[in-house]
Amino acid sequence: MQFAKKDILDMESLSVDEIALILDTAQQMKEISKRPVKKVPTLRGKTIVLFFYEPSTRTRTSFDIAAKRLSADSISISGSASSLIKGETLVDTARNLEAMNPDVIVMRHFRAGASHMLAKIVRTSIINAGDGMHAHPTQSLLDLMTVRENKGKISGLRVAIIGDISHSRVARSNIIGFIKMGADVVLAGPPTMIPKGIEILGASVTYSVNDAVCNADVVMMLRIQKERQNSFLFPTEREYAMVYGLTMQKMKHAKKDVLIMHPGPINRGVEIAPEVADGPYSIIIDQVTNGVAVRMALLYLTAGGARNVDAD
Ligand code: CP
Predict the structure, then answer these.
(1) pTM, 2 dp
(2) Can you list the domains of the chain with their CATH numbers?
(3) Ligand 1 centre from 311 Cα, in Å?
């Protein structure tokens, strides 16, 4: 199957076959990262712009490493170091970047819809690295890859996503991604952090973390996104941790082969206890490793690299 998409903007616009192709390609790419020389010439001569208007550790670094492992040239620009602070609009910035003929622009922006707008006005491929509370498709793809690798499948699994659902682009992309790939998704957290009507996406809702944990094959914990909250949604962090945090006590109700995930950054002792984050069920570090592989696959598929990785 040839990948025909110009942009990667959200999980809604990817078909089941396209997601499967991305995950299969990422699995091949992962092997490159285990070689003594972790570099192939697949994207030699291609230029990737990493345009980040919001802080990032994992996404930005893994895209940069992914580009370099495929021999592409990558250039990083941050919002504070760009001419945006002199009053240039996002559209003008994008048109000026396009005039330099990059092959892919990877963008993170604090406003929902920023990547979609850019994708409409430039010919360059756009990869959404997170837009406001809306979408984080590359995180969802690496989460799908990590679950498939550990469980051998996605379809039929029960995935619990717990925490600040309202403000999480990771939650939104993963609800859509996991349901599309055949999993059941249950959401849990404080009623103040679960949007009314979210069930329309196909997920079920419980306000009991114990209920969510005891039936789940996968438990994904989310950080409280304080930077996107404009009112107090819980009394104190200590009380939040007691009721909604994943502790060893709550893990007693979990299945013996449950997988614990977190997109990062973690607030240890708030949404997840350190012993759980670092414990035997945790695949949080695997998620980060697979982030490089998924982003290599996405750059390869959108920048039109050679179709056979091994041939390089
Ligand atoms: N998961 C995630 O997007 O992490 P960063 O904000 O560090 O990129």
Answers:
(1) 0.94
(2) 16-135+288-304 (3.40.50.1370), 137-284 (3.40.50.1370)
(3) 32
